[in-house]
Design a protein that fits this description.
There is one protein chain. This protein is about 55% helix and about 10% strand. A 5-stranded parallel sheet has the order 5-4-3-6-7. A two-stranded antiparallel sheet has the order 1-2. Strand 1 (about 15) and strand 2 form a beta hairpin. The chain is α/β, with parallel strands linked by helices. The chain has a single domain, classed as 5'-nuclease (Rossmann fold).
Length: about 160
């Protein structure tokens, strides 16, 4: 943003599908949903249940699966559960998995450099920016750093938008 080259933010231009807002949801939301001891467990569960009930579309980069599996396996020391839980994400209503191709990875590299995002965080932000939809995450650093280029929301904010 310092030199004006930063890719622009498409604020409040949410793409809709059958009247529902679409979102890109970061792994942090799914992990907190699956780990009852997480502080944000209940709020993550409410958002994901509301989206499933509405069959609201969710765009997911393919990296979601290994990110969720890794976080669960490290945190719970149960690799079988971690793998099954990650694989189950493919069956969730409204979830569409997007390959990280050359174009998306190029955009993610630009956002990683310009916004100082971590690698995987940049992929979620790049997908949200490319599709013109909000990014939903519990990761405060990801939200703050992605905010110049995408609408970055907490799950609580996304739930309010979905219900509002």
């Amino acid at each position: 943003m310092r030199d004006g080259s930063q890719t622009s933010r498409r604020s409040n231009c949410w793409m809709r599908y059958d009247g529902e807002e679409m979102f890109v949801i970061d792994a942090s939301v799914y992990v907190s949903r699956l780990r009852r001891e997480e502080a944000q467990h209940a709020e993550s569960a409410r958002l994901l249940e509301a989206m499933a009930a509405r069959r609201a579309p969710v765009l997911c980069p393919e990296i979601l699966l290994p990110e969720v599996a890794a976080a669960l396996a490290r945190g719970l020391d149960d690799p079988d559960f971690a793998y099954r839980a990650a694989a189950h994400l493919r069956t969730l209503p409204g979830h569409r998995f997007i390959a990280v191709d050359r174009v998306l990875s190029g955009l993610a590299a630009r956002l990683a450099a310009e916004c100082r995002l971590r690698g995987c965080d940049a992929i979620y932000a790049a997908l949200a920016q490319r599709e013109g939809v909000p990014l939903v995450t519990w990761d405060e650093q990801q939200r703050n750093r992605a905010a110049p280029v995408v609408e970055a929301l907490t799950p609580s904010e996304a739930l309010a938008a979905l219900e509002g």
